[in-house]
TrEMBL record, chain A:
Gene Ontology MF annotations: glyoxylate reductase (NADPH) activity
Domain 3-hydroxyisobutyrate dehydrogenase-like NAD-binding, first and last residues per copy: 163-280
Protein name per the record: Glyoxylate/succinic semialdehyde reductase 1
GO terms for cellular component: cytoplasm
Known role: Catalyzes the NADPH-dependent reduction of glyoxylate to glycolate as well as succinic semialdehyde (SSA) to gamma-hydroxybutyrate in vitro. May function in redox homeostasis and play a role in oxidative stress tolerance by detoxifying glyoxylate and SSA generated in glycolate metabolism and GABA metabolism, respectively.
Active site positions, chain numbering: K169
Keyword annotations: NAD, NADP, Oxidoreductase, Stress response
Residues of the 6-phosphogluconate dehydrogenase NADP-binding domain: 2-160
Similarity-based family: Belongs to the HIBADH-related family. NP60 subfamily.
TrEMBL record, chain B:
Gene3D superfamilies the record matches: N-(1-d-carboxylethyl)-l-norvaline Dehydrogenase, domain 2, NAD(P)-binding Rossmann-like Domain
Annotated ranges, domain 6-phosphogluconate dehydrogenase NADP-binding: 46-205
Organism phylogeny: Eukaryota, Viridiplantae, Streptophyta, Embryophyta, Tracheophyta
Ranges for domain 3-hydroxyisobutyrate dehydrogenase-like NAD-binding: 208-327
InterPro entries on file: 6-PGluconate_DH-like_C_sf, 6PGD_dom2, 6PGDH_NADP-bd, HIBADH-like_NADP-bd, HIBADH-related, HIBADH-related_NP60_sf, NAD(P)-bd_dom_sf
UniProt-recorded name of the protein: Glyoxylate/succinic semialdehyde reductase 2, chloroplastic
Family: Belongs to the HIBADH-related family. NP60 subfamily.
Length: 290, 338
């Protein structure tokens, strides 16, 4: 099966390599062209523009960093829309529902087929093909691309009309962002109270609160180490979009609002490109920060 | 003789009979007692248990089932009846329980009850003395724990704070996690009893450390439940199926068992009590005080605490702490009669 792939960042690179390893023919494009080189070494072809990729492939997947990039790739000159007639576009970026709807309408208007499919999972699950895919939009298209989803992820959900996948992703990341802050507060309090934060990690891992995120990120956080699996700026973007969703529907979300403030503070401290666990730094007294 | 080898390691002033050791120690701190000192032939010590509530009842029950010589007390006597019918003895005051036992456990709801039972009128301290031990498994703040410790130790007895992580089901299944601090000797002596009631135990040093660790753990838990509640509610309000959210969460990195266990009933607005909301709020309040004492900012815990306060004000104190989701709703469900 031949697939186009737009966006070779942390996620896109891992996902397209995964597809290549599983025998898919992949044509890639990235705004910074040099990122394509490594994919070529793995056997990918290169498209000069998003339009060129779409022209070549019946199915094109996009994995961009935010709403603005997702829109740009579709609507700009040499963008996806130019050759989309009769072809399929699967946007796996995390965006707000409005952006997704806008893209969907434009694609459909030009005779194309659209599926939104944001994922839950970051760098390692992407490398291991263990993502959770939250799809919505064209059901027939969803059924056609399941072989691709089966390679990229461990589980796929079809959630109905366009917008539902985007919303589900935002809700999940909102919970995750709040949990990371709760975790960070606990680790810091343990340390400041003279307890062993490593012991706290052990205790948490034994009980009803144990989860992959704490287990994976806890030890690195205690060493002030935040290698980016999911950049903080994207987590804050997701919290902001989730809060906007809550805003539209008058839903009370005080804990998430507090978490968003912490991520904003972390961004203002210049930590946007580090892993989102770097929000831990916002709780440190000035002489303790790394 | 193995027994005398074991006995010689115990501090001379402690005349507790060595406990029957059922399992090997699993504590991460290196064991004080020689690992060869197992399978003791001496009779088991007499054990007291004060506080037969949601937690105390199954904990005491597990001790009884394991053949421990058990004496119980509860402020409302009727709660002890099931245990008495299974062979537990009963004394009408903490003082008398402590006097007739070698080690006395206490599982009370909050700092005030813990203090009253420990050294109030007819409190346990009156029945304590050299050679005895008091193990307080209640969740209290560090200062309360130190206060109780002081009163107990002034009688010549040993003290161990040992709050637990885990609620009703882990208590029933003997799967609690003990976060102990205080007299190391007493910790070693009661290890086998803790192993009956729990799956792991930690020794954390000076009195206050166990209390602090428990509060930190429950602070994280309270915040996690509040943020999960926000997610479930947002899901519903934007037209998504919250059951799907529970499934999605269970597949990913934030897959806490707590979410998959409680999510389904929360979606139906049901909150069967495993951990009363009023106790969760108490723990958050104490954690915030701890944070203040070390000048630490905790905005998430503070926001979460407010939600539990709202839930309490609407009569949801005795529901499970997952009822905090009601605090986010515009039309809040009030408590129903049990």
């Amino acid at each position: 099966m031949e697939v186009g792939f737009l966006g070779l960042g942390i996620m896109g690179k891992a996902m397209s390599i995964n597809l290549l390893r599983h025998g898919f023919k992949v044509t890639v494009w990235n705004r910074t062209f040099s990122k394509c080189n490594e994919l070529v070494e793995h056997g990918a072809s290169v498209g000069e523009t998003p339009a060129a990729v779409v022209k070549k492939c019946k199915y094109t997947i996009a994995m961009l960093s935010d709403p603005s990039a997702a829109l740009s790739v579709v609507f700009d000159k040499d963008g996806v829309l130019e050759h989309i007639n009769g072809r399929c576009y699967i946007d796996m970026s995390t965006v707000d529902a409005d952006t997704s709807s806008k893209i969907s309408e434009a694609i459909n208007a030009k005779g194309g087929y659209f599926l939104e499919a944001p994922v839950s999972g970051s760098k390692k699950p992407a490398e291991d093909g263990q993502l959770i895919i939250l799809a919505a939009g064209d059901k027939a298209l969803y059924d056609e691309v399941l072989p691709v989803f089966d390679v990229l992820g461990k589980k796929s959900f079809f959630l109905g009309e366009v917008g539902n996948g985007a919303k589900m992703k935002l809700v999940v990341n909102m919970i995750m962002g709040s949990m990371m802050n709760a975790f960070s507060e606990g680790l810091t309090l343990a340390e400041r109270s003279g307890l062993s934060p490593e012991t706290l990690l052990d205790v948490l891992d034994l009980g009803a609160m144990s989860n992959g995120m704490f287990k994976l990120k806890g030890p690195a956080m205690l060493k002030n180490s935040y290698p980016p699996a999911f950049p903080l700026k994207h987590q804050q973007k997701d919290m902001r979009l989730a809060l906007a969703l809550g805003d539209e529907n008058a839903v009370s979300m005080p804990v998430s609002a507090a978490a968003n403030e912490a991520f904003k503070k972390a961004r203002s401290m210049g930590l946007g490109d580090l892993d989102f666990s770097a929000v831990h730094e916002t709780l440190k007294a000035p002489d303790h920060s790394s | 003789m193995r027994c005398s080898m074991f006995c010689s390691h115990i501090s001379p002033h402690l005349n507790l009979s060595p406990m029957i050791i059922m399992k090997r120690f699993s504590a991460p701190i290196s064991s004080y007692v020689s690992p060869r000192a197992q399978a003791i032939a001496e009779p088991a010590a007499r054990v007291g248990f004060l506080g037969i509530g949601i937690m105390g009842s199954p904990m005491a029950h597990n001790l009884l089932k394991a053949g421990v010589d058990l004496t119980v007390w509860n402020r409302t006597k009727t709660k002890c009846d099931p245990l008495i019918s299974l062979g537990a003895k009963y004394k009408p005051s903490p003082e008398e329980v402590a006097a007739s036992c070698d080690v006395t456990f206490a599982m009370l709801a909050d700092p005030q009850s813990a203090v009253d039972v420990a050294f109030g009128k007819h409190g346990a301290a009156n029945g304590m003395g050299p050679g005895k031990g008091y193990v307080d498994v209640s969740t209290v703040d560090g200062d309360t724990s130190k206060l109780i410790s002081g009163h107990i130790k002034s009688t010549g007895a040993l003290f161990l704070e040992a709050p637990v992580s885990g609620s009703k089901k882990p208590a029933e299944d003997g799967q609690l996690i003990f976060l102990t601090a205080g007299d190391k000797t007493l910790y070693e002596t009661v290890g086998s009893l803790l192993d009956i009631m729990g799956k792991s135990k930690f020794y954390l040093g000076d009195v206050g450390n166990g209390a602090a660790m428990k509060l930190v753990v429950n602070m994280i838990m309270g915040s996690m439940m509040a943020s999960f509640s926000e997610g479930l509610l947002l899901c519903e309000k934007v037209g998504l199926d919250p059951d799907v959210l529970v499934k999605v969460v269970s597949q990913g990195a934030i897959n806490a068992p707590m979410y998959s266990t409680k999510g389904p009933s929360m979606i139906q607005s049901l909150y069967p009590t495993a951990f009363p909301l009023k106790h969760q709020q108490k723990d958050l309040r104490l954690a915030l005080e701890l944070a203040e004492s070390v000048s630490q900012s905790t905005p998430i815990a503070a926001a979460a605490n407010e939600l539990y306060k709202v839930a309490k004000s609407h009569g949801l104190s005795d529901q499970d702490f997952s009822a905090v989701i009601e605090a986010l709703k515009s039309k809040i469900q009030h408590s129903e009669n049990k």
